Amino acid sequence: MTQDKLLCDIGFIGLGVMGKNLVLNLADNGYNIAAFDLSDEKVQAVIAQDKQENNTTTPRVYGCSSYTELLSQLKAPHLIVLSVPAGAPVDQVCENLIGAGIQPDDIIIDTGNSLWVDTVAREKKYKNNFLLFSSAVSGGEVGARFGPSLMPSGAPYAWARVKPIWEAISAKVDAVTGKPIERNQPGQTVDTGEPCAAYIGPAGAGHYVKMVHNGIEYADMQIICEAYHVLRIGLGLSCDEIADIFEHWNNGLLDSYLMEISVEVLRQKSSDTNTALVDLILDKAGQKGTGLWTAMSSLEVGCPAPTIAQAVYARSISSFKELREQASKDLSGPTVVSVSKEESQAIIEQLHDAIYCAKICAYAQGFQLMKLAEKEHGWTLDFASIAKIWRAGCIIRAVFLQSITEAFTRNENLDNLLLDKFFAEQLSERHVNWRKSICFATMNGIPTGALSSALAYYDSMRAAVLPANLLQGQRDFFGAHTFERVDKPAGKKYHVEWSSDERKTILIDD
Ligand code: 6PG
User: Fold this and answer.
1) Are residues 248 and 285 in the same domain?
2) How many domains is the chain partitioned into structurally?
3) For the purposes of burial, counting CB atoms within 10 Å of the CB of 346, is it exposed (0-12), middle (13-18) or buried (19 or more)?
4) Of 55, 78, 119, 238, which has the maximum CB count within 10 A?
5) Which ligand 1 atom sits closest to the C-alpha of 217?
């Protein structure tokens, strides 16, 4: 490859969709990049795009054909960004860089969706070879190009070096309104506003927080899809009519990127049939695993996150298309009852509130999960700051994140969002509509697992008494697992001698 012998600021490995756009974003912000990918075609593609977008004759991106060449093109200590698939490819690249002569004071930033425990293990494993820093990226390809949300974590020494770069390339939010500052043109930069990049904590913490972001993303998407299903099946509306409703909602409390793109998807016509594309898309959802990891972590730390888990299950159940088709013939259910125009309008309004309430619960679950993980792993997470960096750039960006930021600013020790005064009021004003919406869906046989699980979560969280008393009795009956009593001091354990005739309740000694 022919190029100037000027040393670059940053090395970049992995020029897929995310990688290429991050490179161009870095270049727009004044950094010279030495870029490498196993596919030379991808290297040439980013150089060509840089030439096309860059007005000067000086290239900002230098293509490299090997790991050794990449290191030789960089200022020392080297700073190298990875954008490769999570798992084995990350280790493969790390090993290749060791082979190419990477030094202990060099920094590698993993921007993929790595499993957070892998990041912790890698930081330890490679500590004598280089410093592994991680920074999950959210925002898809457009975010990567014009301003993503970044969740960096690892050694503070590395963060000091990465911070100005990350703050430059990230999305920005107006400090007063909390609204994203627009940036959508090549060459454009934004130097004002609050950057959506904040240090999260030690190794692994950033990837954990990104994992929870994705868990919430799964729930948010599923909630919108269930609302679409109710409108399409329950009210028989067309895709364009649903798009109009979503568009209207997107100007209010439900203003979010996911609602906005749902409008676009619903309006899209297939270029060959000129009918609604969404009607032609096969109803089998894919997943790469971050939602599943979030649900698994919630079970491990003992944090209820049923709406996130349900969103993962909804994708799984969708994948059983053939089975569902068979069962749709064999299993009975209600037929959809037609409603008047007025009733239909009321159902639409109820559904709006159901989405909003379920969304509050999904975020409450995600934030509580991070809080419990924080304790378990000895991190110090700043929840107001996490909510702030999710206000723009990322997939779950929404007006709503400003209210969450304010809730954690009011009380940094808030145990659960539902206990915040603002959110508690929102839920009390709307829960009746939420219930009516679920009743309508249920009576018409339309599954609303995410909306319903969120309601069950809400009702469980606000219940001073749950049926776990009977459950403890059952456990004691078959397994002598003991129980505490409401009329005795806390911590004292009791057991009933179930097999004896007297069935005496006895106090178990510590
Ligand atoms: C983001 C996205 C991104 C990716 C998900 C999709 O924040 O930019 O979450 O990370 O699109 O991995 O995950 P699924 O393929 O599992 O839906």
Assistant:
1) yes
2) 3
3) middle
4) 119
5) 9
